[in-house]
Every structure is written in C-alpha cells, then in structure tokens.
C-alpha cells in the first residue's frame, strides 16, 4: 500500500513537462499496455500533454496545483500511448478547483470530469498514516523527457527510484 501512495504522489511531481529535477523519466522503460489505465494525461486545447495525474474515482482526477495555470482543456485516460488517442478516451474538464495556495507543501488539485469514467481508479492505501522510510523505493511514471534535453515521450515510461 505504501508503494501505491508513494507512486501516486511522485507521479504528480514528476509528470510536469518542465525540464527540472524530476521532470523527466530518464532511462525509463515503456509501461506495458494496460498496466496503468488510471494514469491521466492533462492536455491543452491543441491536444498536447501538459501534466500528469491519476483517476481517483469515476469522475475525479488528482494532479498538481501548479498545472492549473496552464491552458488545460481535457484529460486522456486509458492509454499509455498518446499518439493513439481516440475521443472515447478524452474527457473534458467540467470543474477545476485548487483549494490550496501553490507551494511545494500543498501542490494538489482535483479535476472533475465531464462524464463518469468506466476505468478502475488508482489503488490508494486505506491506512490513515503511512511512514516513508529514508531508503524506500518508489515507482515513477509519466510522459516526461526520456533523456536530458530530449523530446517528450508519447508513450508513458516508468522507473524505480530510491527516496
């Protein structure tokens, strides 16, 4: 369960398209088809990937609050390959709320989808308190940069990192 929470939180941080520490999946491996159907690509009105997130219920996606300032238009769910998106995978954003002032301690935002999504949400731990260990491993996934100063990947990648 700890791994699922760690994975979710790190993906929110690491899925931004900016080339900053953690904004890329360097040497990542391709995510197998169907492995992470709840992984969301937040896209601009031109269909370009902007940020990542996760489906947490049939109508809500959690992402980073700093993504709110971009030109978000839709969410794509159910594919690891952004070059093969059809309109059944695309959900318009009905509501976009960030209850926090953006800083790195409260960088969360909920997006409400325009219609329910039939996919299963990300499995989150039910424990009220989870303690991260200093040398714990976390999986990171996203459509970030796959090499330094390289292009963004259209297929999602994942890597394992020590925290």
The total count of strands amounts to 9
Poorly predicted spans? 1-23
Gap between N and C termini, in Å? 16 Å
The whole-number mean of residue pLDDT values reads: 76
Main sheet: strands, sense, barrel: 6 strands, antiparallel, barrel
Helix content: under 10%
Give the count of helical stretches: 1
Short description:
It contains 1 helix and 9 strands, in the order H-E-E-E-E-E-E-E-E-E. The chain has one helix spanning 2-14; strands at residues 29-30, 39-44, 49-55, 60-63, 72-76, 90-97, 109-113, 137-142, 157-162. The strands form 2 sheets. The chain has a 6-stranded antiparallel barrel with strand order 2-3-4-7-6-5. A 3-stranded antiparallel sheet has the order 1-9-8.
Could you walk me through the main structural features you see in this protein, from its secondary elements to its overall organization?
The model is unreliable at 1-23 (pLDDT under 50). This protein is globular. The strands form 2 sheets. It has a 6-stranded antiparallel barrel. Strands 1-9-8 form a 3-stranded antiparallel β-sheet. By secondary structure, it is mostly beta strands. The longest helix has 13 residues, at 2-14. Strand 2 and strand 3 form a beta hairpin. The two termini are 16 Å apart. The protein has one helix spanning 2-14, and strands at residues 29-30, 39-44, 49-55, 60-63, 72-76, 90-97, 109-113, 137-142, 157-162.
């Amino acid at each position: 369960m700890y791994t699922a929470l760690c994975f979710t939180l790190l993906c929110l941080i690491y899925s931004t398209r900016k080339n900053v520490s953690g904004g890329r999946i360097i040497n990542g491996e391709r995510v197998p088809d169907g492995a992470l159907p709840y992984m969301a690509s937040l896209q601009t009105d031109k269909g370009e990937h902007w940020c990542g997130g996760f489906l947490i219920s049939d109508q809500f996606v959690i992402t980073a609050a700093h993504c709110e300032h971009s030109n978000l238009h839709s969410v794509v769910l159910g594919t690891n390959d952004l070059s093969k998106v059809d309109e059944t995978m695309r959900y318009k954003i009905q509501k976009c709320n960030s209850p926090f002032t953006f800083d790195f301690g409260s960088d969360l935002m909920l997006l409400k989808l325009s219609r329910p999504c039939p996919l299963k949400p990300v499995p989150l731990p039910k424990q009220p308190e989870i303690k991260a260990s200093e040398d714990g491993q976390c999986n990171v996934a996203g459509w970030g940069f796959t090499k330094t100063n390289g292009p963004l990947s259209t297929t999602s990648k994942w890597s394992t990192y020590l925290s």
